[in-house]
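Example record

One chain of 227 residues, shown exactly as stored in the release files.
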Amino acid sequence: MASITENIFTVREQIGKAARDCGRPAASVTLLAVSKTQGADKVREAYAAGQRDFGENYVQEALDKIKTLPLPGLCWHFIGPIQSNKTREIAEHFDWVHSVDRLKIAQRLNAQRPLQTGPLNVCIQVNISAEDTKSGVALMEVAALSDAINRLENLRLRGLMAIPAPCADVQQQRLMFRPLMQLLQSLAKAYPQMDTLSIGMSGDYAAAIAEGSTIVRIGAAIFGARQ
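Predicted structure tokens for this chain:
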């Protein structure tokens, strides 16, 4: 069985190839290691291999790891659904939040973000497949939510995130991702700091990169099966 270090090397090589295949530099895509359900020891091993960005879905589990691993340069991303009673912990301990899908949550994060920490980087989660079981706002609602979030001084609106419906066909994957990139390009004219497209996971990251992804979220290919 390959080690976490070997897995990170392999995944980075694959991401770099996918970027180069569509005329992009490998450095234009950030690998976000999804460390949910993985122990602090595995995060520490990935850190030793040069990984700095880690994604978590569950607040209490993440807080335990954050407190255990006060490592320089480590960047924590919250990527799961956000409950109102968890916004304070997220605002106080994370560097990024990818899953903002309503103004109420954004307002709570803004109010609870410690001033000395600096603005919290946030992405709006978009439900690009219009699935009833998925979080996220409809494409047509993103512009209004972007305007409202941009007015919150303790948040920094950085971009969009999506989790499309599973699909094995690469061309169909690209078609699902494309409207998101087009929307980001449009919004960036009004909000130049919107430079982030958080799309692509293990089964579709090549298509996501071809459609402009700047952050891909990879878990099992790095850490193995979830515990």
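Notes: The longest strand covers residues 155-162.
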